[in-house]
Write a structure and sequence with these properties.
Number of strands: 2
Strand order of the largest sheet: 1-2
Distance between the termini: 32 Å
Strand content: 5-15%
Oligomer: single chain
Order of helices and strands: HHHHEE
């Protein structure tokens, strides 16, 4: 069976981890993905990338792409092998290793 989606709105914002707390009963012990904003509809090759991530048996996949104004978004910092070092919301400075 393919992926299932469910949309839920939070009464207030309390960070990304809150999404998993809200969805805890729905997720159970299943694999899950957290997709932010319009990436569901407009993310570059998102459907293909999500399919590749679904075959993972452990770990996580972070989807990211370059934007002209990263201070308006959450960004991920990667090391030279592609491993995520940090996630930061609306950074004040630009770092070339962040997407």
């Amino acid at each position: 069976m393919g992926p299932t989606s469910r949309i839920c709105c939070a009464a207030f914002t309390d960070g990304l981890a809150q999404a998993f707390l809200i969805g805890e009963s729905f997720i159970g012990n299943d694999l899950s993905a957290l997709v932010l904003g319009d990436n569901i509809f407009y993310g570059h090759d998102f459907y293909h990338l999500l399919g590749n991530a679904m075959v993972r048996t452990e770990g996580a996949t972070v989807f990211a792409y370059h934007v002209q104004d990263p201070e308006r978004y959450g960004v991920a910092e990667f090391d030279s092998s592609g491993k995520v070092l940090s996630l930061e919301k609306s950074p004040n400075s630009r770092n070339p290793t962040m997407l």
